[in-house]
Write a structure and sequence with these properties.
Blueprint lengths: L3 E4 L9 E4 L2 H9 L9 E2 L4 E3 L2 E2 L2 E6 L16 H13 L4 E4 L15 H16 L3 E5 L2 H8 L11 H11 L5 E5 L10 H21 L4 E3 L2 E2 L10 H6 L7 E5 L2 H17 L3 E6 L23 H14 L4 E4 L18 H9 L18
Parallel strand pairs: 6-7, 6-14, 7-8, 8-9, 9-10, 11-12, 12-13, 13-14
Antiparallel strand pairs: 1-2, 3-4, 4-5
């Protein structure tokens, strides 16, 4: 593959130019791989394909305008999948994290719903064609268990689902990594900390046994500043069956903790991926709308997104995923699109890939 001089992407350092493979060329062997691989790996600080670093920038895939989880149960969903993937291409993104295939209230949901899995298969195939990796996020199983009156903190309930998903996708090289379930309630006692550690040990080890091919993160954590005396998130992220330190960034506390997270990840030889960050549209696109701060952040969305990308890049983060790509507009919406031009420009500027020429202007992306 040819080596070129390119803009250095997130997680690749702070020099403005460097001679290296483009993100697309570095990822190509994995995206074109077979059941024999190659699969994405980690060198202890970055995600790699055949030894070459692959910077990842992407977005969550939550179909807010189609009612969220129920869209996954619709046979016509692939047309929306193509639409949102085209939006990602327009912003130079090469990673998508699909979420919320079930909800916590609807009755009659099943883990083996054939329409849900047909739509997931379509997403993986459509993403691969566009040079995009997919995070297989297992967290919606929590909502399915809750809808059935079961306790999602019981790890044994997750094992059949983990085995089912791993059997379906263990040979798919377009998968970047698995994410089990993020945003746990921070423990307040040593016994709660041990229970949480036990949950993640059991589920991540089961996933590793069922699928030895793919990387695993236990999930994106936040409120990591809570109860530092317990060292709870450090113990979980140190698990041998956890390959990636996953975080979520939604507050000034989260931004302030980024250097400590990066330092810890280096100490255990694992890359960091910011699995989710975002801000409601009501706080302003290019400038702060005024009023009360958002979780300590008195900034518009563009400034906040830039702070996440720039700080994470300087600290060596391996990937970034914002919440959420889509055309929804409204004060409570977190979505990013050409309709939010300032934050859209930031996302495109930090994108791992050049914006796709055929849709780079944003035309027709949101009607």
């Amino acid at each position: 593959m040819p080596r070129v001089t390119e803009r250095v992407g997130p997680g690749q350092g702070s020099s403005p130019t460097a001679t290296r493979l483009t993100a697309a060329d570095a990822a190509a062997p994995c995206l074109a791989g077979s059941s024999a691989g190659p699969f994405l790996r980690t060198d202890g600080s970055r995600l790699t394909c055949t030894g070459n670093p692959v910077p990842l920038t992407g977005f969550t895939f939550y179909p807010a305008l189609l009612g969220g989880a129920k869209a996954w149960h619709d046979p016509s969903f692939p047309s929306y999948i193509d639409h949102v993937l085209d939006m990602g291409a327009a912003a130079g993104q090469n990673l998508v994290r699909a979420t919320d295939q079930w909800d916590s209230h609807a009755g009659g949901q099943t883990a083996d719903d054939p329409i849900v899995w047909s739509n997931m298969d379509y997403l993986l195939a459509a993403a691969r064609k566009r040079g995009v990796f997919v995070v297989i996020d297992l967290s919606a199983f929590r909502w399915l268990l809750m809808s059935q009156g079961a306790d999602p903190s019981q790890p044994d309930l997750w094992i059949p689902f983990i085995d089912q998903v791993a059997a379906r996708y263990r040979d798919n090289t377009a998968i970047a990594f698995y994410s089990i379930v993020g945003e746990p309630k921070p423990p307040t006692t040593a016994s709660e900390s041990q229970a949480l550690l036990g949950f993640y040990r059991t589920t991540s080890e089961a996933l590793r046994a069922a699928d030895p091919n793919h990387l695993i993160t236990v999930g994106g954590f936040n409120h990591m500043e809570d109860h530092p005396e317990l060292g709870w998130w450090q113990a979980i992220d140190a698990l041998a069956s956890n390959d990636i330190v996953g975080v979520k960034t939604y507050s000034q506390h989260d931004l302030d903790l980024m250097p400590a997270i990066s330092a810890y990840a280096r100490s255990v030889g694992k890359p960091v991926v910011d699995e989710e960050f975002g801000m409601p549209q009501s706080f302003g696109d290019g400038t702060f709308a005024g009023g009360a701060a958002y979780n300590g952040l008195a900034d518009g969305r563009a400034a906040f997104f830039d702070a996440v990308y720039s700080s994470g890049s300087m600290l060596g983060y391996a990937g970034f995923i914002f919440w959420n790509m889509g055309c929804e507009m409204g004060p409570d919406s977190y979505e990013v699109s050409p309709g939010t031009p300032a934050v859209w420009a930031v996302v495109a500027r930090y994108g791992a890939l050049p914006p796709a020429d055929q849709v780079a202007s944003g035309r027709s992306l949101c009607g």
